[in-house]
Amino acid sequence: MRHGKADDETECLFKVGTLPVPFKSPSKMASAEEQQAQKLMAEADKKSASATKTTGFISGVFGGSSSGKIDDAIELYCKAANIFKMAKNWSDSGTCSLKAAHLYQRINNKLEAFSKFTDASNAFKKNDPQKAIECLKQAVAIQTEMGRFSMAAKTLVSMAEICEAEPLRDIPQAVGYYEKATDYYQGEESKSQAQPCMLKVAQYAAEREEYGKAIEIFEQVAERCAANPMLKSGAKEYFFKASLCQLSVDPLNAGQALARYIGTCPAFQDTREYKLMKALLGALDGDPDGDAFDAALKAYDEVGRMDGWAAGMLQRVKRRMGGDSDLT
After folding, report:
1. Which residue among 35, 118, 289, 316 is buried most deeply as judged by most CB within 10 Å?
2. Do 217 and 249 belong to one domain?
3. Where is it located (predicted)?
4. Is the dihedral of CA 114, 119, 121, 122 positive or negative?
5. DSSP characters over 224-279
6. For the domain that residue 117 is a member of, what is the CATH number?
7. In a domain, 122, yes or no
């Protein structure tokens, strides 16, 4: 079969080896990128060190030569960070962004410093979550100093999420960040943003059997929802979670709490969750073998399964009855 002219020329180029750009494997390209970034970072380090030496009386009297060097160093660090990022070298990318952040602090550019601390955290999060949190701590310090507490709260939530995830899985630390974020949001009257943070604190409190704390938060959120026509439908979920915590403490308290909840939100009485709680209370009162307890749960799950957190709470109640059936 006869090829076209263009095909013949291309074939000839391959034969004589005259292609203008030789092919490089992806691994070699990545290595070349990292070498380029390393050179940029080394050059930035020199400019940063030189600026430090010239800072002081002479710089203040005769001009901002050190400021120009700092600007140049920042630009080089940012370029290097992006190249390392493309090469998926997260550690060096984070280090370059972190160095740029510290230089921005030296020239009192707080917004850019915050941005670079955030970039550094995003890079470190891939393989060094603790260092990522340390970067975000510095970002929060800048935000609070500037009076931007809603932004600081959002950053605290990011810190909490890093703590929740593997490999850290540091729940007490995560709860502390969620609580601080709640304080900041509430101080700014951002109640809708504070609510998810509060609910995280309540759920973890219940898992640690701090039922009083969990009940207080769930009831507070439920009452807020019940008082707002736009949020009213959500009240049943939080009254149900408060009821589960009450049940974990004492069935008598749970029964009294249910009566209060329908007084605050009469629509709760018509929900599947309320009916389940009444059935469970009846089972606990007159069914030492737990058969009625299991039957109530089965009837509920036939319509729609409860979430894992609620199932875990009821598993604890079941164990106290002397049973060990899997409710999840």
Report:
1. 118
2. yes
3. Membrane
4. positive
5. HHHT-TTTGGGHHHHHHHHHHHHHHH-HHHHHHHHHHHHHH-GGGGGSHHHHHHHH
6. 1.25.40.10
7. yes
